[in-house]
Amino acid sequence: MDTTERTRRPWRRIDHLEQMIPYLFALGCARTWMTLTFAAPAGMPVPLAFDPHMVFDYVYAALGIAATIFARRLAPLHSQPWAKPAACAAMLVASLCIVSAPAAPDLAGGLGIAAAVLGAFGFCAVLLMYNEAIVPLSLMRIALYTAASRFIAVPITYLCQGLDAERLAAVLVLLPFISVGCLVLAFRQLPARDLAPRAYPKFSYPVKPLAVLCIYAFAYGLRTHQLPEGAGVHSSLSTALVMGAFFVVVYFFSDRFSVSALFRSPLLLMICGLLLIPAEGLLGTTAAGYLISMGMTLMSLLISLLFYDLSKRMGIAIIALTGIMRVNSLFTIWGGSCADLLDTSGLAPGVQSIVITAAVVMLVLASTLMLLSEKDLASRWGIRLLETDDLAEEGRRAETIAERCDAVTARYRLSPREDEICRLIAQGQTNPQIERELFIAPGTLKAHIQHIYVKCDVHCRKELVELCGGQ
Questions:
Q1: pTM (2 decimals)?
Q2: Helix H segments across 101-164?
Q3: How many CB atoms sit inside 10 A of residue 229's CB?
Q4: What are the Cα distances from residue 345, in Å, to 153, 338, 339, 348, 363?
Q5: Does the pLDDT of residue 102 top 90, yes or no?
Q6: Largest distance between two CA atoms of the chain
Q7: CA 419 to chain CA centroid, nearest Å
Q8: Is the per-residue pLDDT at 404 higher than 90?
Q9: Distance CA 110, CA 115 (A)
């Protein structure tokens, strides 16, 4: 493809947009359901002395941590026979509890707690299975599909918030079925090789990207009480703005800058929002609130992409990486609690604002620079996404290799194990990396490679890589 054609049509491989539809509504409907039930409930106030959303967040974070700890037993979660029915049933029962709570004030407390616990379980399970469904795709598709899914949740949410109580109740009952149903369709689109259980390699958790996300969540939490209408990390207008812009930038301009440039964007948004706080009397809270919310939303997506990259390169179960990311909701709560404590400290509001702004700017700046300059992200954890100069080209290359490997396997009748090894070699993995991922001995790997050479009529690793479309 020449430069002119590439400029006119930057990413040819995403022509079949119908492939995105199951992913679009699996995540989009789940996020809409969570927003309508807990994050921003509309039309059905639950008369409780506590906030169900806070209970939801704590249970949600605890379940995410548990998913990471027990990932070796759970992964792949979608293959567990109970996972999809349990997720759908939990969300459905949570919806029924919320719908019935206003009509039974004596039972409202118990119904609220049950809704929060069951809702957190169902929502967490759906998101983890969504991660499993999307991780086999190229990073380009992962970025675009996830951004589009978060975007589509916003108009769906706004449409549902205008419904009367009866119609809203029907929507809360239908959304879990639609989300899980689309999740099933997404898995059916994947090749059988991507659904097969894989070996679970040993790895050290990439704590630094998670720490960056938690710092951003804490900074966001400091301002949650002052967020304007339409701002927030859930299905809000600020989410639609940043996800829509992200989709456009990645789709049309991903060949114009390195991926590391994307990771500077949340820093810019967050710091600009914080620096606007002292000028709220002149500009109002809208600009600051929107920028801070957009920075947090964008950083959560980008950290997810880092973990997808690690899972794809190292063969780590994605739920082991993304499960514990749910703790960022706790840091948002704790940030809000710190802001409340400052309000009771006796300091003047202007002084409080300056203290918070200075502390958070330094934290966000230091954490982002640590992420962007951290050399052992690749050497220690295998994360190389920040080194990618062209995400579109990376996506094309990954899909080309997958297609060529499919053809090689079919033509030369490679066994399932030989197919796995052939793909890993084409992706550029070394023998020690393949041994760790597949849990096989060096002698066994060498024997498999020799069998592949004989079947494919090649004489060295370089020829096999070229045959499979690698470099």
A1: 0.83
A2: 108-134, 139-161
A3: 10
A4: 39, 11, 10, 9, 22
A5: no
A6: 79
A7: 29
A8: no
A9: 8
